[in-house]
Design goal:
The complex is a heterodimer of chains A (550) and B (331). Chain A has 24 helices and seven strands. Chain A is mainly alpha-helical. The longest helix of chain A is centred in the middle third of the chain and has 19 residues, at 227-245. The model of chain A has no long low-confidence stretch (mean pLDDT 95). Chain B has one domain (1-300): Transmembrane di-heme cytochromes, Chain C (Fumarate Reductase Cytochrome B subunit, Up-down Bundle). Chain B is 59% helix and 4% strand. Chain B contains 14 helices and two strands; from the N terminus they run ααααββαααααααααα. Chain B has a two-stranded antiparallel sheet with strand order 1-2. In chain B, a hairpin with a 3-residue loop joins β1 (108-113) and β2. The termini of chain B are far apart. The model of chain B has no long low-confidence stretch (mean pLDDT 94). The chains are: A mainly alpha (550), B mainly alpha (331). Chain A: Residues 530-550 are annotated as: Disordered. Chain A: InterPro entries: 4Fe4S_Fe-S-bd (IPR017896), 4Fe4S_Fe_S_CS (IPR017900), Cys_rich_dom (IPR004017), Helical_ferredxn (IPR009051). Chain A: Keywords: 4Fe-4S, Electron transport, Iron, Iron-sulfur, Metal-binding, Transport. Chain A: Residues 94-123 form the 4Fe-4S ferredoxin-type domain.
Amino acid sequence: MSNKYALKPDELKKEFEQKKPRLLKGEFGGKDWWDLPVEFRDGNWCFPAKPEVLDELHFANPRKWAATDKDWQLPAGWEKTIRDGMKDRLKRFRSFKVFMDSCVRCGACADKCHFFLGTGDPKNMPVLRAELVRSVYRNDFTGLAKILKDFSGSRTLTQDVIKEWHMYFHQCTECRRCSVFCPMGIDTAEITMMVRELLNLIGVNNNWILAPVANCNRTGNHLGIEPHTFEQNIMSLVDDIEDVTGVKVNPTFNRKGAEILFITPSGDVFADPGVYTMMGYLLLFHHIGLDYTISTYASEGGNFGMFTSNEMMKKINAKMYHEAKRLGVKWILGGECGHMWRVVHQYMNTMNGPADFLKEPVSPITGTKFTNAKTTKMVHIAEFTADLIKHGKLKLDPTRNDHLRTTFHDSCNVARGMGMFEEPRYVLNKVCNVFHEMPENTIKEQTFCCGSGSGLNAEEFMDTRMRGGFPRASAVAHVREKHKVDSLVTICAIDRASLPALMRYWNPGVTVYGLHELVGNALIMQGEKKRTEDLRENPMAGFGEGDDDE
Amino acid sequence: MKKVLKPLIAVIVLALIPWAGITYGKLDYVFAIVIPYAAAAILVLGMFFRLIDWIRRPVPFNIPTTCGQEQSLDWVKTNPLECPSNPFMAAVRVLSEVFLFRSLFRNTKAELHGGPKLVYGSHKWLWLGGLAFHWSMLVIVIRHARFFLETLPMPIGLLETFDSFLDVTVPAFYLTDALALAAITFLVLRRLSDEKMRLLSLSTDYFPLFLFGAIAVIGISMRYVTKVNVMPVKALAMTLAHFGFDAPEPIGVLFYVHLFLVCVLLAYIPFSKLVHMGGIFLSPTRNLPNNSRARRHVNPWNPDIKFRTYAEYEDEFREKMKKAGLPVEKQ
């Protein structure tokens, strides 16, 4: 794999070999962390948002600039903007205030961040990442610490501090792994969200986040795909399904009166390998005869507003309920996605509810009431499918996935922002025969991020992505060696977009799948032709022309 | 090293203040009555204002860190402690954090091995050291109640008996004294020995440890070595407990050093990282139940945001939608 923004895999491996077992990079010789320089170089920063994107969103300080510039052309009075912004957020979010005040720097989080493990950069220790802000907070918002400046590690807000914030709060994927280990429950994701909001106030940003936000606002999805193209793309998947299975599925679009509105991240509609997961959904819905529709307007589950500001998150999320109301559906079903589900689970109902116009979700096939989604009225597809399988409503042939030896990657947001671990595993175990867990310190609530979440999946960020994804890749390598695992199954669209690159880099030969792609493979559809290939048109083991398994 | 020496010197200077004040200034009254009341007032009012200040700030979103299976389908086994679905279990979760340091119990250590690969090992030393430090401190504080009370309540007497069951010295040796000193030593050495810890520690991390250490060492030496006269100490404690202002009888200067450092500690708590003793109860990632899809959480400042409505969307794309056969509201 060649990418000018990352070292060759062998070179990076060599670097890791040389520094073992030390996790930290460099010698610090008694230097304090605030004396360590911030160095932007190829592969460790994302391009800033283009001026026209900022104009469209009415965001601050549109200009042409790069992180490597000496002068970032910050707007006049930017210090006051940041200070006022901090003051305002300290007032509105108890989390921010408590997290600024009560860290004891015990260091339990220090070696928990994937970016620290991969880069060895001390400022990627969650505690220090937060100290980047706390040091300014102590200086500007507390009395005593200001007097005892050196003693308390407080410092003045300067452009260099802003540069440091930009670097390290865009080297945090808001995965919350550190929060699991923190005795105070301090959540770096929360601090990162606040700082990114502050940086956006002065025009310090990331194009890979803001361009999708602008697109999503206008067309409904990140890629800026207009409604007719959106529909055509799904219809081409319908054709692909017919080619592989001989079954013609019939999705409908923007149909009023459907029982269920289905929303998934647009990565499932356009990006390889997400499209195969989409084919799995379509097969499943056809199999059970679900009365559903897909909206071209609310055609994005992912919410990059979350990586921008609370207000932007709300604005983008509002479309889901708005469209559900317009179409008159009973409830909403959500596809496989990470941060979409964190937003739906923890924010949607608060921001855009109450959704009184919807009904409490009930599975039309099994009659199961989803009481855990009583007021959001939105059900996760893994819950939905697990319930179907439990009630014996699906005809499945798990041997059709015998050509895959699987492991499961918990996506951070679903794991640590929602608490869903068992449902996807239940489904996976019912649709395939070979499944091995990765080591326990790398799964479930301790799962490792793909290294590219929270809007950091940019090409130009490849070096940091491959380093940040190293802990995940290392765990996959373990099951690959031990159990010959070759398939990494996940329920997140960013994972489906980012893990293939990570696997090509660290573990060539490991392929990334969505959970419902495997469901689609295993489903015995009514009226199907003899299936010899999976949804990717790869031969299935034991189903070839020469195989006689009847 | 400045980061370590400065707080060490600060503690020594602080210890010299009462020593000089008593020896040369005859300021017994100030150190026995005035400063303790002032310190207690700062602690109580300071913590009160800190807590009020935190509680006043809204919790706009329900954001628990879910460290276990949520409550979902009936047949899926849930983990009510790590992923509480009601306020009661959330409270149990917070208390398990407060009393047992549950999250620290999970602590692991990552190491880079050949391959290259990451290897994780259980690493409970911080959990054990932290637990030993906090619990022995608590027991020591409770034990001191005997100075402030006319008759000793049974539970405190029992606690003392347990604490001194080794019965090896006269007066009986308290286990928690040794435990506290050992834990403080461990916590300081831990910060010094690990490169990561050295880098992330500030003077304000060493200062309270040195302060605790000095208080403990002086307390222990008064009990076992210099043998302070307990009667006037008890009389002073009783005076303070009854909010009296009588001047104390003469007490050894070491006692005043001990008392003064305790006063410094009390007054320091509300303004330092030691406020974590209050903050831990208010952490929204731990004290909220994970039921945000089942029950609506209300944001008091929920802003009114204008979003792009379907009508605006259709206005822009109507012709293209019609051409593609997508239903439209307006022809």
